Amino acid sequence: MIRCPWCLGNPIYIKYHDEEWGVPVYDDGKIFEFLVLEGAQAGLSWLTVLKKRDNYRRLYEGFDAGRVAAFDQRKVETMLADAGIIRNRRKIESSINNARLFLKVQREFGTFSEYIWRFVSGKPRLNSWKEFRELPVKTNESVALSKDLIHRGFKFVGATIMYAHMQAAGMVNDHLVSCFRYRQLNTFFPQSIKQTD
Question: Which of the residues 13, 21, 33, 38 is marked catalytic?
């Protein structure tokens, strides 16, 4: 079974690649989870975050944006003392800030999903990369999304982080054409918009 090379060599990575990466996500709870985790990942490897994911779920109360938005300074100190997550004050405080803004976007658009999927016209983008080195680190869409989020006050949402989010949440299918998941996702979600090469 051929997989994208980035996931090889670690069972956690392989499971994530096989079951989650590139699958379109429309659930606000899952989208918020990815936003928190991708912000935590900034400057680190995604594998580091995946290994701590269960601890994040525990401390972030199931990634309930409403509950996270209510976290106070005492909660921040508790989180900073917990070795189960990445103990970076700026990242933790920004995730609370982002939770409050996440709720604001929900009120404006009905769901955060409705807001974020507008940046790809509501449909996953299907790329056709042959080699891993071809994958971009950001795109015009991720730049536009990043700028809009920053304008709204979100933190740790640069264009590269937001492209990683778009990949994780299936807004783009960046599996290599040789990967078994490329065809599966295209079959499951045939409404994908094929990108121009």
Answer: 38
Residue 108 lies in a domain: yes
Is position 1 within any domain?
A: no
**Residue 2 falls inside a structural domain:** no
* Whole-structure pTM value: 0.92
CATH number of the domain bearing residue 66: 1.10.340.30
* Residue 56: active-site member: no
Domain that holds residue 113: 11-194
93 among known catalytic residues: no
Kindly report each contact of residues 89-95 with a partner whose C-beta sits within 8 Å and lies 24 or more positions away, as own/partner. 90/155, 91/39, 91/40, 91/42, 91/156, 94/39, 94/154, 94/155, 94/156, 95/35, 95/36, 95/39, 95/40, 95/60, 95/68, 95/156
- Is 26 marked active-site? no
Sequential pLDDT tens for the chain (197 residues): 999 999 999 999 999 999 999 999 999 999 999 999 999 998 899 999 999 999 999 999 999 999 999 999 999 999 999 999 999 999 999 999 999 999 999 999 999 999 999 999 999 999 999 999 999 999 999 999 999 999 999 999 999 999 999 999 999 999 999 999 999 998 766 555 555 43
